[in-house]
Specification:
Layout lengths: L3 H5 L17 H10 L14 E2 L2 E2 L21 E4 L3 H11 L3 E6 L6 E6 L2 E6 L8 E6 L11 E3 L5 E6 L14 E3 L7 E3 L5 E4 L10 E7 L3 E2 L5 E3 L3 E8 L2 E5 L6 E3 L4 E3 L6 E6 L3 E8 L5 E3 L15 E2 L2 E2 L1 E3 L6 E3 L5 E5 L2 H4 L5 E7 L15 E8 L2 E5 L2 E5 L4 E3 L6 E4 L6 E7 L3
Parallel strand pairs: 3-6, 7-9
Antiparallel strand pairs: 1-2, 4-5, 5-6, 8-9, 10-32, 11-12, 12-13, 13-21, 14-20, 15-22, 16-19, 16-21, 17-18, 17-20, 19-25, 23-24, 26-27, 27-28, 28-34, 29-32, 29-34, 30-31, 30-33
Length: 425
Amino acid sequence: MRFTKFALLGFTIGGCPFDARAATTTRVGRRDRAHGRFPVSASLCGGRKTVAGRRQRRVVCEHCPVGRNATIQSAEVLLPSGELAATLAFFCDQLGFRVESIFPADDPHTAVISGYGVTVQLQRGCCEPPGALRLRCADPDGVAGGARQLRAPNGTRVELVPAAANLELGEHHPTLVIAHAGKPDAWKPGRAGMLYRDLLPGRQGGRFIASHIRIPEGGPVPDYVHYHEVRFQLIFCYRGWVRLVYEDQGDAFVMGEGECVLQPPMIRHRVIECSPGLEVIEVGSPAEHQTHADHAMSLPTTLRRPDRHFAQQRFWLHTRAMDRWQPWRHGGFETCDFGLGAASAGVVGAARVRACPPSSDGDAWRHGQELVLLVVLSGRMHARCAETQANMGPGDAIAIPAGSDYCLSAASADLELLEVVTPAL
């Protein structure tokens, strides 16, 4: 998805989990908070609200860059009014919007209403389609007697949905996946100028996503403060280095090759700059999750709280200075655990694995985990899982389904793997 044309108009990626995206004014936001007819979430101009146990920051519009083009003064969504009086009664009396302007006085045909971060112009005779409006609510069933979808007199469809959506992990479908590197068309453009290669086509039924990400050009990265609604997410630095900053974790730092970070759910962070040809491996759950911008927060934050928990997980950075090698659970290899199991409350584990004589060629193994993902960082090996065999080299990845016999053999002396396991071993 490309946002170039909207960026030229001064729009930014929405900054809160309530999904309203239109620019509005501080006055509208404050009035809506005071109005409070229904427990519908305000966005951008929203006050302090408690959603799924989290106390949200107050977003003050004077400091919220909802529009960056100095020529453009405001934004409105244009909808047909139908019978204007009936449409106004629906939006204002039932949903809690308020009238900003109406004209002409003797026979009104146009009204501007606002609420919850959205400004709408209702116009009689307008040829635009009636559209749809989604309101994220603390209690969707309390807005309209349990109805989740309403139809305004002008035809606009109004959806009432929970403000904090539950994570949809998807039905788990453990599948053998072998993703080979070296296909130029496998790289797709993603967020903030990054290129993505999918290491888990099919996503194991939507439960997981694993991406090989690279930034060809070094220097500043056009990123913004953002956060993810996830079960877990980790980033391993494969090649080069990257400068990052995280909420309540002190000043920006550089993560280099062989180092790994656990990003707990909802932690604000930003990519600042990177080396030319940066490559990272990112693994998370679920496969489809929301990324939100937070335009109100500046990083680094003034507090440093390394023990702070985000959804029962802690931020964790494993550096090369922390490397400790020990025998792997399979013979012929040794492993360096990153410590993510403890930081993630057992949700996910990750480690580097390397060949270590004597070889155990021919030994078959089996696991009972949700996911075992191996990515070849260097060297070569032969992988066999059930009846499938493959020679694997740098950048190749294999996801091994639970209950299947597998074997790693013909490991070169310089073989090194990234292993990601859920739950943590």
